[in-house]
Amino acid sequence: MKLFKWNFTDIKPKFPNIVEKFLGRKITDEASNDQEVSIVPSVNIADADKAFDVSVALPGLDKKDVKIEIQNDCLIVSSEKQYEKEEKNKNWMRREFGYASFQRMFQLPEGADQDKIQAEMKNGVLSIKVAKKAGYIENKKQIAIE
Fold first, then answer.
1. For residues 129 and 118, is the Cβ–Cβ distance under 8 A?
2. pTM score over 0.85
3. Buried residues in 27-38 as b, exposed as e (16+ CB within 10 A)
4. How confident is the model over 103-115, as a mean pLDDT?
């Protein structure tokens, strides 16, 4: 699997207007002239008993390409990668350069312990465990529907 070989017709959503409104930008079938690609990786978040589990699909990326940080009570997962591809034959040479990046931000809940976060990258999936604060009681209230 190659990380930066994109066919935009494969990733264009079936309901682009909804996605475009959410992302705040138009989705097109064409890459820009400088081959800059911005991707939004899929994420699953689970609220387990003792931790929040975040799984980010990052096929083709290595852990050295990914950056995880906490800033203003937000968990930020990002990556920037430049690539160069060169093909040579007897009579011709082709060289391509490109750049791809993404950033996902998640507001951490009050019960998250920002000092106890673990991350692991395996088979293209980044798994992040954010521990819950000991003794934290979530303020829940059920609202009756009339």
1. yes
2. no
3. eeeeeeeeeebe
4. 90
